[in-house]
Amino acid sequence: MHIPQGVTATRHPPERVPWLVVFPLSATAGYYILPDALQQSDWLIFAPQLTAYLSLLLWMAVNTKPWARLGLDRTSFGWGVRQGSVIGVALAAVNLSLILFVIPGLGGDVAYLRETPHARAPVWLMFPFGIAMTAILVELNFRGFQLGRLLALFGPSTLGRAGAVILSAFAFAWDPFMVHVFGSLHWMAATDGMVWGILLLRTETLYATMAAHTIEVWILYVSLKLWFG
Q1: How far apart are CA 148 and CA 200, in angstroms?
Q2: What secondary structure does DSSP assign to 69-124, as a single string?
Q3: Rounded to whole angstroms, how far apart are CA atoms 192 and 219?
């Protein structure tokens, strides 16, 4: 099976400034040591993601072939989307079962999902394009930039790759916006993040994680809309 060139390939000159990933990670960790009153500030809730995108732009400015380094080589598009779509359907099935049956069966509350910004936004805005654009940007940040730079810092060993996947997944799950929107269910983003991270390592293309993320959220969004009415 041919695996296209992507983020973990070694066909580029040495990467410059991968340590820029420290800034969004520090912003995420720093948020949780702030007083409760400051944690309600919209600017501070979005600060880690804003820091990540600014760091990404700076990283792209100083590295050659940044899109290829992020795993966005055009030749891998079709193959990556096919691989990611399968994972997206599988994750949607697992998470939908947890949300609708397992968690309520254990006494958990999921009704608040009706009131999230995603649920309250107009359907025409969210499906399909709003969800797709959000998934693409999130994957560009957390898998393309953050996981990719952690892989460059930690090295190609099994321990280094595992550490990069886990750290980036927890940064994703504990992103302040994620926690504010999804409340007690934000931990599910950690398992998703680890699956998407492993998918990136296996396929070496960000198109796979973008497709997996988009397909999963499409299915969850439509299913929950129909379930809650």
Answers
A1: 9
A2: HTT--GGGHHHHHHHHHHHHHHHHHHHHHIIIIIHHHTT---GGGGGSHHHHS-HH
A3: 14
What is the spatial distance between Cα 205 and Cα 213, in angstroms, rounded to a whole number? 13
Cβ–Cβ under 8 Å, residues 176 and 31: yes
196 CA to centre of own chain: 8
Whether this prediction's pTM lies above 0.90 is answered by yes
Angle, CA 23 vertex, CA 53 and CA 36 arms, to 5°: 95
State which amino acid sits at residue 85. S
159: tokens are 């321990």
Summary count for the chain: helices (H), strands (E): 13, 0
Residue with tokens 């927890």: 170
Contact 216, 95 (CB under 8 A): yes
pLDDT at residue number 13: 81
From CA 165, how far away is CA 194, in angstroms rounded?
6
CB 88 within 8 A of CB 213: yes
- CA dist., res. 44 & res. 19, Å (int): 22
Digit-coded pLDDT (tens) for 168-200: 999 999 999 999 999 989 999 999 999 999 999
**Domain parsing of the chain, residue ranges:** 18-228
Nearest to 197 by CA among 81, 84, 53: 84
